[in-house]
Amino acid sequence: MKSTTTARKNWYPLVVWGLCWFFGTVVSSCTAPAPQPYRIGFSQCTNGDAWRQAMLAGMKKELSFYPQATFHMKDAHDNSALQRQHIQEFLREGIDLLIVSANQAEPITPIVEEVFNRGIPVVILDRRTTSKLYTAYVGGNNLEVGQTAGAYASSLLHQHGSVLEILGEVGASPSIDRHRGFVQGLAAAPGVRLVAQVQGDWKRPSVVQALPAVLRAHPEVTLIFAHNDRMALGAHQVCKQLGLDRRIKVLGVDGLAGPQGGIQLVQDKVLAATLLYPTGGEEAIRTAMRILRQQPYDKENLLSTMVIDSTDVLTVKMQTEKLDQQQQDIQRQQGLLQAQLATYTNQQTVLYVLAASLLGAVALGVLAWRALRANRRITRKLAGQNGEIRTQRNQIQALAEQARVETEAKLRFFTNFSHELRTPLTLIMGPVEELLTSGGTLSAPQRHDLGLVRRNTQRLLQLVNQLLDFRKIDVGKMPVRATEGNLVAFVREIMDVFERPARQRGIALRFLPAEPSIRLWFDVNILDKVFFNLLSNALKFTPERGQITVSIQLVPAQHSVRVSVEDTGPGISAEDRAHIFEWFYQGHPSAAKGSGMGLALALGLVRLHQGELTFTSQPGQGTTFVVTLPQELPVALRSAGPPAPLLMLAEEVGPETTPNDAAAVRLSGKDNKALVLVIEDNAEVNAFLAQKLRAHFQVQTAADGATGLRLAAETIPDVVVCDVMMPGLSGLEVVAQLKGDWRTSHIPVVLLTARDAPEQQVEGVQAGADLYLTKPFNPTFLLENLRTLLSNQERQREHFRRELSVDTATVAPQRVDQKFLGDLTAIVEANLDNSNLSVEDIAHRLGISRVQLYRKVKALLGTGVTDFVQGIRLTKARQQLLDTELTIAEVAYRLGFSSPSYFSATFKAKYHISPSEFRALHTTPNV
């Protein structure tokens, strides 16, 4: 009986596995990989004539063989500016390949080069650009078309006669090449002369209007060559009206099929002949797909031409009609194929559903049977455990909630404690730094005492920072943000800080890396504190004339890097070794030289970095601390951004820094025109900041956020210095409201705070702050940062002025300041012809006062409102002076100047050239 049960247990999994394999095979055999989708954009110069429509039809016909390709055409309607806009829209929409038929070569060339330089393939169709930056060209050989037309015209005239040429649009590459080829073709017959030309635009009406006068001036013309069949038809109509249709023969280009095409016109004897000019639509799509599929292709794809005259017009027409009939048959077959594919897809879906349902039913049946048997055995066991688990869960939840509340209370305590310490430290370090760097007459003992105060203040700040780091590690609030870097260069940079104090004590500081460069992922700020504490500890316990050796080596077998710090100090006693990494442990009183936090903090940070910190020591010979770091870190600990800046601890590691080193900071120069608003709730810090800044700026102060906001809106200061933690409105709320109000959105804001955690700094920057300084801070550093912000603000003004002087179109409202300038510019442009437009009118339209408008424009552009309006008018004047149909007086009155003489004087004062001289310099007379 037992063997039978075992056999059944082994049989059921085999059945389930067999069914899974069978249905998996069926599904995989029916599944085919989907072809890769492609997005093709087509910028057409115009789709308003039969030849261009035939091109589009050929492209769609060829696209029917590539269902995975999506195709979108934009019609520029013979407008080069609109065509450039269409291509820019294609870039924003995201395309895999661009096909372009340029309206005019030169205006379209820059945007086509930009598309090519972005790595997007470009296929030039029919009309070339002036650049070689494209992937492939598809089109007829217009030079060959012209040469063939010239040769045929010479043969038709029996090598003697006068010819008139009707050109295409000015600047179009087909027109240029066809004319050049036609002249070359006529050169073989000296008796045939090109006596006249008519400039057309590819359309019949332009020829009907201009040709009669030319024919009257040249009655000797016996043949007309038009660059396309539409203009050739217009030439025939003119000849018929003048009674010259029997004497003058007309040649065209295109050779399209259909009732209005060139083939029909030859058959009706309207045209003597037409030259076949293939549209190239099918070939353009075939070339594009070869490029997208990374198959071989030719960069130059020139399509051949032929002459269609009365000798072969019937043959060509029959072949064309036969091809059209075959294409219709292909389309019908494709329709039937699509219907069959839809039916196949539906049947395939039904098969998948049935297979999945059957497999699921079998699997569920087996699982249900086995689960039923197991459930009976387990239910009784679980019933007895559920009560115990519920009791334990409730206890754990209660303990977890209690621990969470206690942790949050501790974290708040240490944060508030840090803030309370940093504020008085600011008032201590600020005056001390000012005295040491001012270069005043201080005696040597006074400088020594001030240096002692500074070092001990910095040491107190270090202890505060270590306490915060201790709490962050304890509650898991310190993240690892590793970046890839050179560990050798990083450690060498830290050792440079200890070079001077070690030299003054006669201690040899040696650095022995096994390789010149060892790259791995590590957090700069975390390892900076680790190695700084280890080196500082070694420096404290190494006697004079001793030695500190730092070595780095790879351990390939363990996929790690080992950094050791070895000193020649007294070593660690056996009694202290077990407690050396405990918080606040200082060892034997005779050996205590610190706070007892450095090594404990280093151990916590190394473990946070998934490394190890160990040590070996021999009394009387020294101690060696070894940091072992993994070569690879999990992706979750890696940062995608650039390496964070090296954050050295503020504590001095050696004797007093010489005053000359600190005095190198620039203190010269005054900026009395700039207004600084100080918002600080601590009266002493407020007064200290005002005192230090008044020597260089105009200063206003506020004791709370609400008062600061009111003063900012009333006075429009040049920069705001604000504390973060204030009663009522916090500094972050003040920043958000300043940046959200268009009156004050341009003002740079400096936040001062004791909150130095990275996430808190990010919070300040996200609120809109331009600079985030932690207390205590160096007053000279604050002063130089304010100067830098004011300098950047001036450069921003110059940027806005340049942007508005190049193009007076409304600035895109991406920011509050740009939205304001956009609205202001729109109002001025809408009233350019209003000579009575005043500052009050503009302010009224914007819904603000005259004073507020003046201050805002002055702050953003560094100029007055009147000068801003005058600048826009003069910029528009430069554009309109290029239109020679307008007189200078008309330009002046259009732009709101009271008189032409005032306009000329204002224009010359800005551009150092009169309007008439500007026009003569930038325009050429029509030929």
From TrEMBL:
The keyword Transcription applies. Keywords: ATP-binding, Kinase, Membrane, Nucleotide-binding, Phosphoprotein, Transcription, Transcription regulation, Transferase, Transmembrane, Transmembrane helix, Two-component regulatory system. Residues 675-790 form the Response regulatory domain. GO terms for molecular function: ATP binding; DNA-binding transcription factor activity; phosphorelay sensor kinase activity; sequence-specific DNA binding. Residues 416-633 form the Histidine kinase domain. The modification 4-aspartylphosphate is found at residue 723. Its EC number is 2.7.13.3. The chain crosses the membrane at residues 350-372. InterPro entries: CheY-like_superfamily, HATPase_C_sf, HATPase_dom, His_kinase_dom, HisK_dim/P_dom, HisK_dim/P_sf, Homeodomain-like_sf, HTH_AraC. CDD domains: HATPase_EvgS-ArcB-TorS-like, HisKA, PBP1_sensor_kinase-like, REC_OmpR. Residues 822-921 form the HTH araC/xylS-type domain. It catalyses: ATP + protein L-histidine = ADP + protein N-phospho-L-histidine. This is histidine kinase. It comes from Hymenobacter nivis.
